[in-house]
Design goal:
Chains A, B: Belongs to the amidase family. The structure is a homodimer of 538-residue chains. By secondary structure, the first copy, chain A, is α/β, with parallel strands linked by helices. The first copy, chain A, has 19 helices and 15 strands.
C-alpha cells in the first residue's frame, strides 16, 4: 500500500475532528483558554474545570469531592441520580479533552441514555442495578465497546474495520455490574512507550504541567483520572502502562497479577498468540480504597465466567496485619532515580519506620537491568513485527518515542525458538531467586520507586526498569502517589549522572512509590498498600 | 561421543543390577515364580504378593485392606507404627518390581530409618509429624530425591551426574508433611509414550496381564499402585502420563490444573524453558478419597512457599451439589473407542441417569483431532530436539514406541516463532469455544473416555487423544476405574474400524472413565467425581 503524507494526515485529522465534533457547543472552552493549553505551555490545568464556568456547582461537587466508593453509596441511595453524575463526568471529560487531549472515542449520548435507564431501574426496583450502579467509568482505547472504533491510534485502523461488534470481556462485566461507560482514552502508537502520542489523536498532555508527558501507554487514562474526568479508569499494563501514567498524573494505579482481571476481547497493536509476557487490565483511581473496590467488585462477579483466560481464584478476604515487614528494593546503579523520586521514597521509608513498621533493605537481588533487557526481547518476539506493519500500512511515520523506544529489542523480529527457550529458562531462574528472597526474609511486600523519573518533558521518558521488573516477575504492583517534585529541594547529588534530570522542567510533577508482592498475592498486597497509603497521607 | 552397542547395554545392565542388588535376599521371589513373570506371559500377578510367602499376615493386611486415608488414621493413632507400614510396603514394592519391573531407584534403608524417626517423634511428641505422618509414598523417577539418580531411563544420564543434590519441591513438601519416600518408579525413554520402557531399567509390565502395557509415562507408578506396592503414588502428566497408567493399571489417577501442585525441581528429558504445554504432578491412588486427600493436604501446606511457579490459589472447601449436570464428550470419529471402553462409558452413563443425575450429550465441540495434532506440535518445539540428543548421547537406540510416537510432530524441531504464534492463537480460540460450551450449557463436568483403548499389548498403545485434549485445554481431569474388558461381551460393531482391537488379548484389562472440568475448577471437579465414583461403585 502506498500512501502520501497528506493521506495519513488527512485520515487522522478527520477521525480526530469527528470525535471533537461530538462535544456539544456548550461544553466547549473559550478560545482564549484553548490558546493557552498546548504542549509547550508550562501550565497546570487541573483547576480549569472548576473555573471555566461550564460545570454547575453541583457538577463541581460531584466530580471533585468524592471518590468512586463515595459516589456509589450516593448513587445507590438515590442521593445523586446516575444522570446527574454521568452528565457531570461527561462534561468534565469534554473539558479535560480540550486541555490535555486525553480521549479517543466519546459516546456521551449513549451514556446519558444508560444513566436514565439505570435511574429508572433504581426507581422501579428499589435497588441498584449492581455494585457499580450508575458510576461513569473511563476505559483505555484498547477495550472494545460495541459500535466504537478501536483504532489504537493507528491511522491504518481508522475507517470502520475496527468498529467493535462485541464488548471486551471486562466491558461486558462493568456494564453487567451497573457502570456507565462514556469515553475511551488515548494511547501511544504501538502502546509501547510512555508518551501517549499517535497520528490519529495526537499527544496527551500532563494535567499538572502540559509540557510533561502524561505517561503511557494508558496516558489518556492517567490524564482523565488526573483531571477527575473520571474517578475510576481502566488501563492495561505490560511494562508499566498503568503505573507510569498513574505516577505522571498523580493517581493510584494498580497492575494486578496476570489473569485475575479479564483482559480478553481487546484490540491489539501486535499479533495474537504471543508466547511473551502477559498484559493485564487494572484500575487508575483517585483513592486507595477505589483500587480495592475495583478488585473486589470484579472478582466478586466471577470474572472467569466472562473470559476463559481468567484464573478461577476468588478474592480472598484476609485480615490485615497490624505492622508490616517491608523489603526495600535496591536501586540499580544502571538506573539511578531522580532526586524527587528519591525524596518520595525516603519520605515513605521514614514515615513507615516512624509508624512502627519494619524496613528490611534487600541486599542482593537478581539484576533489574537484566530483567529489563530480557523483557524487551519478550516484547520483540513477533517475526512479522506486526505493530510496525500497522504503522507502515498507512504511510504514517513512527512517533519519536517509538523510534527511540527502549522496549524494542535490537533483535526485534529476529528472535528464534532457541532464544525463547533461553529467555524462559532465565526468567524461571530469576523468579526462583526472587522466591527465595521472599521465603528467607519473610517480608510482606517490596517498596521501591515507580520509575527513575517523574513525568518528563515529552518524548524523553524512555525506559521504565522499575515497572517492567514486575511484569517480568508477574508481581502485582501498585503506585501510591506521594509528594511532588520541588526544584528548591530536589537538587540531587553531583556524583550521580541522572538521565536527563532537569529540576526546573519537572518542578511540580507528582511523585510516588511502588509497592509489590508475589504473584496472586494481590489480596496481601492491597492490605499492606492500604496501611502504607494511610501512613503516607498522615 | 561414540559408543558401541556393548557400552550402552553394559551401562544400562549395570545400573539396573545395582538396583536389584538392593533387594534383600529374603524379599526375593523363588526362581520358578520369576520364570513365569515375563512380558509374553498372559498372567495376572496382582495376587502373587499375597501368596508368595514373603509378606507376613499383618503386612498383607496393611498393604491390601486400607487406602491412604485409613492408614494415616491408624498411623496417627499409633495403631500401626510407621516402621511396620513402611516395611510392609518396601517388601511389597520389592516383590512388585520382580514381577512388573516397575521401579528405578529404591532406598529402603533410608525409608526404614525415617519410619523409626517418625515413630519416635509420635512417641515423644504425642502427635503425628504432619498430615502424612508415616505413610510410604511412591514417586515417579523424574522427581529428584537427594542422593538418588534421576536417570529418566537415559543410558547417558547414568553414572553419577544426575544424582540429586536437592529434593524436588514436592518431595520436600511430602517429607515436611510426614511422608516416607522409599522408591522411584519406571518411565519410558523420553517420557513421551504410553509404554514405560527404556534401556536402563527395561519395560514395566501390567500387573493385571503382563503382556499388556502398564501405560506411560508414569507406567511404573501405575504398576506400583496397581500392585498395592503403594496406596499413594505421584506421577506427572503432560499428555495423559498419569491418567493412561491409571486406566491401564486400574487405579484412580488425577491430573490437577497446571501449577496447583509443585512441579519444580524435577529432572527433565527435554529442555528447560519450553513455551509449550505445562506438565503437572498429581496422584495415582487406590480410592477416590485419596485423590482428595492428596490435593487437600498439599494445598493445605501452602505449596507456593515451596515452588515459585505454584499458583497462590488455596483449596476452596465447597459443599457438593446433590445432583449433577454432566456433559458427555462426543466421540471423535477419528478416534472410535474400543468396545470395552464404550461399555464402561455406557454403563457409567446409565448408572448416573438412574441415580438422578442429568446427562447432557454435548453436540458440536471443537475438534479433538485438531487439539491432538496441535499438542504434538507443542511437544516438538525444541530446535535442539534435546530428548533425542539424550538418547543418542549413549549410542542407545530409540525404543519402539518412541520411534513410532504419535506425540512427535512431523515438524519436530523445525517449528519456528511464526508457528508458535499460530499454535497459541488456535489454542486460545479453542479454549474460548469450550468456555462458551460451559457457560451456555451449565454443565458441572464433562464425562468421557480415558482413551480409545484399554491397556494394549506392548508397543501398540499409540495415541491418547482423549487425555491430551485436557492438557491442551488445561482442564483438571480424573480417571475413575470402572469394570474390566470382557472378550465375551466386548465384541464391538462390524462397521467401526477399531485401531488394533483384539478382544482376546485385552480380556481382563481394567476399564474406566474420565471426568474433567474447567481450569482451576479442581474443587468442583473432585466434588462431582466423588459423586460419580460412588454411583459407579454402587
Amino acid at each position: 500500500m502506498t500512501a502520501t503524507t497528506s493521506d495519513w494526515k488527512a485520515i487522522g485529522a478527520r477521525k480526530k475532528q469527528s470525535v471533537l465534533n461530538k462535544i456539544p457547543q456548550e461544553w466547549r472552552l473559550p478560545a482564549e483558554t484553548l490558546a493557552k493549553a498546548h504542549e509547550d505551555a508550562e501550565l497546570d490545568v487541573t483547576g480549569i474545570p472548576r473555573e471555566c464556568g461550564i460545570l454547575t456547582a453541583d457538577e463541581i461537587t460531584i466530580t471533585e469531592k468524592y471518590d468512586a466508593t463515595d459516589l456509589l453509596a450516593k448513587l445507590a441511595a438515590g442521593e445523586y441520580s446516575s444522570l446527574a453524575v454521568t452528565t457531570a463526568f461527561c462534561k468534565r471529560a469534554a473539558i479535560a479533552n480540550q486541555l490535555t487531549n486525553c480521549l479517543t472515542e466519546t459516546f456521551f449520548d449513549e451514556a446519558i441514555e444508560r444513566a436514565n435507564y439505570l435511574d429508572e431501574h433504581l426507581a422501579k426496583e428499589k435497588k441498584p442495578f449492581g455494585p457499580l450502579h450508575g458510576l461513569p467509568i473511563s476505559i483505555k482505547d484498547s477495550f472494545n465497546y460495541i459500535g466504537q472504533e478501536t483504532t489504537l491510534g493507528f491511522v491504518s485502523f481508522v475507517g470502520g474495520k475496527t468498529v467493535a461488534k462485541e464488548h471486551s470481556a471486562l466491558v461486558k462485566m462493568l456494564l453487567d455490574l451497573g457502570a456507565v461507560l462514556y469515553i475511551k482514552s488515548n494511547i501511544p502508537q504501538t502502546l509501547m512507550t510512555a508518551d501517549s502520542e499517535n497520528h490519529v489523536f495526537g499527544r496527551t498532555l500532563n494535567p499538572h504541567k502540559l509540557t510533561l508527558t502524561a505517561g503511557g501507554s494508558s496516558g489518556g487514562e492517567g490524564a482523565v483520572v488526573g483531571m477527575r474526568a473520571a474517578v475510576l479508569g481502566v488501563g492495561t499494563d505490560i511494562g508499566g502502562s498503568i503505573r507510569v501514567p498513574a505516577l505522571c498524573c498523580g493517581t493510584y494505579g494498580y497492575r494486578p497479577s496476570a489473569s485475575r482481571i479479564p483482559y480478553g476481547g481487546q484490540g491489539t497493536p501486535g499479533r495474537v498468540g504471543s508466547p511473551g509476557v502477559l498484559a493485564v487490565a487494572g484500575p487508575l483511581t483517585t483513592s486507595f480504597r477505589d483500587v480495592r473496590l475495583f478488585m473486589e467488585v470484579v472478582l466478586g462477579q466471577q470474572p472467569w465466567k466472562y473470559d476463559h483466560a481468567v484464573l478461577h481464584a476468588p478474592w480472598r478476604q484476609l485480615s490485615a496485619p497490624k505492622t508490616l515487614t517491608i523489603g526495600t528494593l535496591p536501586i540499580d546503579p544502571a538506573f539511578p532515580i531522580h532526586p524527587p523520586m528519591r525524596r518520595a521514597l525516603d519520605s515513605a521509608i521514614s514515615k513507615l519506620k516512624a509508624a512502627g513498621h519494619t524496613i528490611v533493605p534487600l541486599g542482593y537481588v537478581p539484576s533489574i537491568a537484566v530483567a529489563n533487557r530480557e523483557i524487551a526481547d519478550y516484547y520483540s518476539l513477533d517475526p512479522a513485527i506486526t505493530p510496525f506493519k500497522n504503522i507502515e500500512a498507512s504511510g504514517e511515520p513512527k512517533i519519536r518515542s517509538v523510534a527511540e523506544s527502549p522496549f524494542v529489542s535490537k533483535r526485534n523480529g529476529k528472535l528464534d525458538m532457541d532464544d525463547l527457550y533461553t529467555l524462559n529458562a532465565t526468567r524461571a531462574q530469576c523468579m526462583a531467586a526472587w522466591h527465595k528472597i521472599w521465603t528467607t526474609t519473610g517480608i510482606d511486600v517490596i517498596l521501591g520507586p515507580v520509575c527513575e523519573t517523574t513525568a518528563m518533558p515529552h518524548d524523553t521518558f524512555g525506559n521504565t526498569p522499575y515497572t517492567t521488573l514486575y511484569n517480568y516477575l508477574d508481581y502485582p504492583s501498585i503506585v501510591i502517589p506521594h509528594l511532588k517534585a520541588d526544584k528548591e529541594i530536589d537538587v540531587g547529588d553531583d556524583f550521580i549522572s541522572y538521565k536527563g534530570y532537569n529540576a526546573e522542567k519537572t518542578h511540580g510533577a507528582p511523585t510516588g512509590v511502588q509497592v509489590a508482592a508475589r504473584p496472586q498475592f494481590d489480596e496481601e498486597l492491597l492490605n499492606a498498600a492500604e496501611i502504607i497509603s494511610e501512613v503516607l497521607k498522615a
